[in-house]
Each structure stands twice: as structure tokens, then as C-alpha cells.
């Protein structure tokens, strides 16, 4: 997917010291944030968001653990909505590079 390539490049550059699994996870999360930003390039969507008529949500589902996470712009991290405690304890940590969300 060409749309996610800038995210993948940024993750590879900024998280080169991390395992490929961690990089993959960071790409997944950062791609969600990129998708939200891309949606706001549509004037009619941006206008509705600014008017408070429409809210955009970025959710991530980890199929391995069953964790469902939602991005919190206020806290700038993905937070658990449905999260098996033991297996997803680390998922709340911020694995994507700081520059993934501008």
C-alpha cells in the first residue's frame, strides 16, 4: 500500500534498533493515525469534524491477544477498550515513533 509507505519508512528509520515484530506493530498503529490524517484532507469531512458533527476514531484490534484499542488524541496513545490483562499489558506502551502523529 503506497499510502502507508511514508509511515513504514519512518518506522524503519526511527525504530531500526527494534525487532521486526515491534516495527511491524508500530507500522500498524502509525498507519491508523495516518489514515485519520488522510480523512481530514477531505474538506467536507474536516468541516464536519471541526463543527463537532462528526468524530473520527482510530481503533486497533490485535487478533493474537483479542485486545481492542482506541487512539486517544488527548493522551496520544492507544488505550484498551477490550483488553485481556496479561497478554496485552504491553500494548498501551507507545511503540511508534514520536513523529508518527503530527
What is the gist of this entry?
The protein is α+β, with helices and mostly antiparallel strands and 102 residues long.
Provide structural commentary.
Helices cover 38% and strands 16% of the residues. The chain contains 3 helices and 3 strands, in the order αααβββ. The longest helix is centred in the first third of the chain and has 20 residues, at 20-39. The model has no long low-confidence stretch (mean pLDDT 84).
List the helices and strands and how they pair.
Elements: H1 5-14, H2 20-39, H3 43-51, E1 59-62, E2 67-72, E3 77-82
Antiparallel strand pairs: 1-2, 2-3
Helix pairs in contact: 1-2
* Rg of Cα set: 14 Å
Low-confidence stretches: none
Protein structure class: alpha+beta
The pLDDT mean sits at 84
- Order of SSEs, N→C? HHHEEE
> For the report, how would you describe the main beta sheet?
3 strands, antiparallel
Helicity, as a percent range: 25-40%
Counting DSSP E segments of at least 2 residues, the number of strands comes to 3
Tell me the strand order in the biggest sheet: 1-2-3
By DSSP (H or I, 4+ residues per run), the number of helices equals: 3
Distance from N terminus to C terminus (CA atoms, Å) equals 21 Å
The general outline is globular
Beta strand %: 15-25%
